[in-house]
Amino acid sequence: SCKHKVYLETLPNTSIIIPFHNEGWTSLLRTIHSIINRTPDSLIAEIILVDDFSDREHLKEKLEEYMVRFAKVRIVRTKKREGLIRTRLLGASLARGEVLTFLDSHCEVNVNWLPPLLNQIALNHKTIVCPMIDVIDHNHFGYEAQAGDAMRGAFDWEMYYKRIPIPPELQRADPSDPFESPVMAGGLFAVNRKWFWELGGYDPGLEIWGGEQYEISFKVWMCGGGMYDVPCSRVGHIYRKYVPYKVPSGTSLARNLKRVAETWMDEFAEYIYQRRPEYRHLSTGDISAQKELRKHLKCKDFKWFMAAVAWDVPKYYPPVEPPPAAWGEVRN
């Protein structure tokens, strides 16, 4: 059905923001070339490559020389290792496009990937949209379609990202139509630039990586917006077997998750602490500015989010574990 879809004649343009740290040469080039080759030029305001203090030689002068051929590509570099979240924020702060589109540096965008995303934002500027993420095999780098049917983004009560079936109530007559999703998978999404900053961007108190996808997802839903996955927008992504760089010591995914839970999840944070008691004693840092933002935007509470948006999550991941149906032992 995607071949026959018609989009608005006038779509907003976008700044495409690609953070990277010690990325492989060909993976980064594949990302850039696929964008240039498969995106209407009029829709690209700029492509901002944000180098998070890489030390690999090919990402210095060689990269600068190579990117000269692309008029819309500019390279920005941090002065110290900032981590994914703050690197994205830096790119967003320099962007001039009407929409911000965030991609990872090891992707391949597919044919006509951008208009379906921009169309949804043009219809409602308080919308975050995510492409369907296909798989680029980390061994042979072949592009493979995402396995199975389209699914909604969800989470369990240890804050692991999950995918759950689209319930019948939300299924569209045309399965290629965008559908609501409670949380996003991670770093591939588009958002109206002004709306992103109205929401406060990412919480700058989140360190390096992790938890930011929940923060932005809860925030957009609870503060008057919505989030959609768009089946006609396909982007391949390399799921790496190992991280090709060192994460600075002293940073903690657990701290980020607790910070998000304390800011946005209200009494539901207790379900996380029951499963992860070690989180109780972690410091979140100062979250008063985040709480103030929530008040200023007149955001709804997390109970509303669970009832109105993520109402199907407890069916698969109940906050309170049901008692075992049976118990005993197995002998061989």
From TrEMBL:
GO BP annotations listed: protein O-linked glycosylation
InterPro entries according to UniProt: GalNAc-T, Glyco_trans_2-like, Nucleotide-diphossugar_trans
Domain Glycosyltransferase 2-like: start-end pairs: 15-197
Superkingdom of origin: Eukaryota
Matches recorded under Pfam families: Glycos_transf_2
Cell location: Endomembrane system; Membrane
UniProt keyword terms in alphabetical order: Disulfide bond, Manganese, Membrane, Signal-anchor, Transmembrane, Transmembrane helix
GO CC term, one of those recorded: membrane
Cofactor: Mn(2+)
Primary location recorded for the protein, binned into one broad class: membrane
Family (UniProt): Belongs to the glycosyltransferase 2 family. GalNAc-T subfamily.
Designated name of the protein: GLTL6 protein
